[in-house]
Amino acid sequence: MRREPRWLKYALIGVSLLFLAIFIALPLFTIFQQAFSKGFAFYKDAILENETFEAIKLSVLIAAIVVPLNAFFGVMAAWAIAKFEFFGKNVLITLIELPFSVSPIIAGLIYVLLFGAHGWFGEWLMEHEIRIVFALPGMILATAFVTFPFVARELIPLMQELGKDDEEASLTLGAGGIYTFWRVTLPNIKWGLLYGVILTNARAMGEFGAVAVVSGLQRGVTITTPLQIEILYNEYQLTAAFAVASILTFLALLTLAVKSVIERFIALQRKEVVFKETK
Prior knowledge:
The chain has 279 residues and is an all-alpha fold. It is 81% helix and 0% strand.
């Protein structure tokens, strides 16, 4: 069997490491170096500054609402697609992936067009004193839009691999639909679901474009963590901006570590499925 030359192997590894060092490791190091450049006391004050603290709280609140919603939607959509055949199935799959191809800014503009003062439902909303755009509901809608594919896309191939045998056996033995879901389906998809939830949470906490359009940029009211970083940077408070950015960076690194662990469990689960099918 023909083998590739050894120099090619080390050249590819070297080029990959060089690119990672320049485009990943160096920026990460710069963020933390700048964040702590004025000492830990300044770092702590920058994080606990009132507007920044409110921005962090708002990001956590939006994620706490959006992640369960998208987890529920993702499980239902994946269950329908993986377990049933129906007219329009491919359309549903395409719509689930649509947020990946639409710019987040466009997503934000869509909600302004629908719910803004001059939007389709703007007049009715104003008459009933309901505010969606430039308020928390609009920010939740925009974040939900850009994050809802993550759970569904992870679960659809996993549930298709698992098949229907276990659920059909449970139903044949007299178990109800809800019991079958909690005791058979959910344990089989738990790692994939957790994987999707973690990715959704990371994206929700870091979303910028769509939220910026619908937030109205009211300081201390509708400013999330990424928006606060931009405000600090534009005001030349560079160290404070990097301090806040280090929180999102730490969250990203934590997400990456948890993601790697869960990927191992998913790989083990898929090996078990293949083993069962070949027995």
